[in-house]
Amino acid sequence: MRLLLGIGHWRLIGGSERYALETARQLAARGHEVTVLHGTGEGYPEPGLAFELFEPLGELTPDARDRRRLRARLSELRPDLIFQLTPCASWVIEEQLRAAPLVRFVQDHTLFCPGLNKMLVEGQPCTEPMGMGCLTRHWFGESCHGLSGTHTRGDVLGPTSRLRAKQRELQLSARSQRLLVGSRYMADELIAVGMSEEQIAILPYCTQAGTDGQGAEHAADLPEATREFLAAGVEPVLFTPARLTLPDKGVDFLLTALTKVTGSFRAIISGSGPAAEWLQQKATDEGLGDRVHFTGWLNAGPLEHLYTQADLVIFPSVWDEPFGLVGIEAMAHGVPVVAFEVGGVREWLTEGVGGWGVPRRDVDAMARAIDHALADPDLRREVGEAGRQRVERDFRPQGYYDQLEALLQNCASAPGSDMAPDPAQT
User: Fold this and answer.
1) Whole-model pTM?
2) Strand partners, 314
3) DSSP secondary structure code for residue 230 in this structure
4) Which segments of the chain belong to CATH 3.40.50.2000?
């Protein structure tokens, strides 16, 4: 097949970009002709892939000339199928639908939430489907976290325009051959806003963690302060890789939980973000300063090494994670996980098989679960090994990309895959 993979940024920023790179590599290795269409980033050379940089992809309202240019280029490329990996503007979807059958990977909440993260201002999850209720809640009730971050309650046009744009994007996405998601949770969210069960394909994520030898060889890549912290004690190591943002990633809840843990431990938190300084100060204020170490941002190699040093991984997200890739990465190393049971986390975290789940934001329950694991090294090994075996069975790349390739081939050849333009586009 001639495949066109769409992504906003072609550079290694985070999980979305790493997924795009690995997917492009895997599909090219299977003999498909893969072109990557990206809006920003000079990218990185990759054998077997072609690249198309089209900078207006990131614009919400392009001029007519840019639209014509994209339409012409898609016509020249003649893809058998377009696989859109990240969110994009409605006008881009319109042109993609004109050009070829489309599969959209819905990796997060942005397609079905005008606030983009399904959270209210106080950090509680929003459980209502997208619609006019988003505006009434924003103006008169519990304010939407995402909308409140960019608009005041007196601003009528901003939130309304964003809702209408999301509704249009959703309407167009309904004309895709498939909407691909990583969890049953995400499928249910799409169904709640009108998508059909038949149009949605659930394909849980995969991981290569624990398979490529990235262990001791990357110890030297750790910051010196991190190496010293690891060498300074013998207590069990708790490890949390997370973006340091509030209120979604829950590192503040983790720190509160750690103050309630009675067993001995050292904790390492890896990641960066706007809340980093506040969280470090909170750790100090809570009396955790000598037991909690912040590494800052780390790339894949040093992170892989820290998984090998961990006795327990803590995944404290309090928002509804679409999946929670950290969990299966830890399990791949045979390291058990303690996590809040949110979103897609429930689908890979089974009690006693890879870890323990606790209710959202319940720091007392999280502390008890950590103490339970710390008190019994044999139990940690048993639960961790059960998790490792599950990853080998359910979450490895070979099975994932076998299923993805079959899905894309079926969509490219399905009846009706030559889709007519939407009258609203003309």
Assistant:
1) 0.92
2) 338
3) H
4) 2-207+398-425, 216-394
